[in-house]
Amino acid sequence: MVMTFNKAGLYELFSHQHSYFKWLYQIVSHFYHRFTAFQWNQLKDLRLATFPPSKTIAFNSDHLKLVGDFYSPKGKSKAETILLLHGSSIFGRKLSLIQALAGEFQRQGYAVLTFDLRGYGESDDPQPNTPEAFNFAQDVRSAIDWLSRHEPEHSKQIYVLGHSFGGAVAFAAQAADSRVEKIISFGPPRRLSERFLDPEAREKQKLLVRWQADMQLNEPLSFEVWHQVLQPLNIENYAQYFATPGHLPVFLIDAEQEPEADLLFLRNFYQGTVPPFEYWTVPQTDHYLGTGFLLGLPCYNQSTVQMFVRRVSQWLQQTHELKKNVSKQIS
Questions:
Q1: Is the per-residue pLDDT at 20 higher than 80?
Q2: Cβ distance 298 to 147 under 8 Å?
Q3: How many whole angstroms separate alpha carbon 166 and alpha carbon 188?
Q4: Overall pTM > 0.90
Q5: Quick one: pLDDT at residue 288?
Q6: Which of 111, 132, 248, 254 is the most exposed place for a label (fewest CB within 10 A)?
């Protein structure tokens, strides 16, 4: 007798019994996010991503408590602020990549605010029964509201940098809040229509279970609900907007070691845009810039992360100067 392996059935079982498997998924997540870029000749560039925030904060978004970290700029009383959004991971803002980027951007003189999106990390879980419960763009709006109230000197120039799932939230946030001046989207979810949203998509159950597990939700996510949640997070929906002059500046980034289909998707997306829209592939690294956990500690390759930070900072300053020049010409 030949036994067949029913992946769909396994995903269905996991989604309904996830509360019993949380401990196992946490172990798997630590293994998946282990530090793999370590080589003896790179020992000098190995760093711990243990940058203490200036303060840990909390604010409400749709009656949900969100927890975050604020990093004051080094040596500045006023500064541009980067809202740094994590991807879909049980670690949320504590992911090695996010901690490394926060510390390195702070060193460059930026104020940085990281926070756990609803459902992730230390933030409250929404009730997974309506699309409105997962309004991640509202979390960004609420974070900006917090800045305006508690750090007004750092709320004048706000940029959103999102990684992976957070890169999609960055697109939704700029559409929902005019206070967002620029967005940097690094490795956003790609081919969502092909992989999840289309009726014949083959990976929908797998991706649905992963999102549920990353948020550590006990209740199964509904495909009907999540299908609506992903609509404003699908970057394909913004193609026409970014093909029209007058949009806000966007920096779209991927990494050389990501899947070829994902790289091709972003290249094609970029080809349909007009300035101010820039695209860059980070050389010789992966979706997480080679960061990860080593013996339980968040680690990163300083050269790679600093290259990323310098390139993003250069783009931010270039677009800032361009905006000032345009304003002078108009006046």
A1: no
A2: no
A3: 7
A4: yes
A5: 97
A6: 132
d(CA 329, CA 331): 6
Pairing verdict, β 46-48 and 297-301: antiparallel
Q: Which amino acid is at 40?
A: W
pLDDT at 151 over 50: yes
Per-residue HEC secondary structure of the chain comes to CCCCCCHHHHHHHHHHCHHHHHHHHHHHHHHHCECCCCCHHHHHHEEECCCCCCEEEEEEECCEEEEEEEECCCCCCCCCEEEEECCCCCCHHHCHHHHHHHHHHHHCCCEEEEECCCCCCCCCCCCCCCHHHHCHHHHHHHHHHHHHHHCHHHCCCEEEEEECHHHHHHHHHHHHCCCEEEEEEECCCCCHHHHHHCCCCCCHHHHHHHHHHHCCCCCCCCHHHHHHHHHHHCHHHHHHHHCCCCCCCEEEEEECCCCHHHHHHHHHHHHCCCCCEEEEEECCCCCCCCCEEECCEEEEEHHHHHHHHHHHHHHHHHHHHHHHHHHHHHC
Please check the confidence at residue 76 and state whether its pLDDT lies above 80.
no
Domain 49-330 has CATH 1.10.630.10: no
pLDDT for the residue 3: 41
Burial class of 206 by CB neighbour count within 10 A (0 to 12, 13 to 18, 19+): middle
C-beta separation of 291 from 305 below 8 A: yes
When pLDDT is cut at 50, 70 and 90, the band that residue 7 belongs to is low
Mean pLDDT for all residues in the chain = 90
Pairing, β 81-85 against β 158-163: parallel
- When mean pLDDT is compared across 64-68, 77-81, 283-287, the lowest value belongs to 77-81
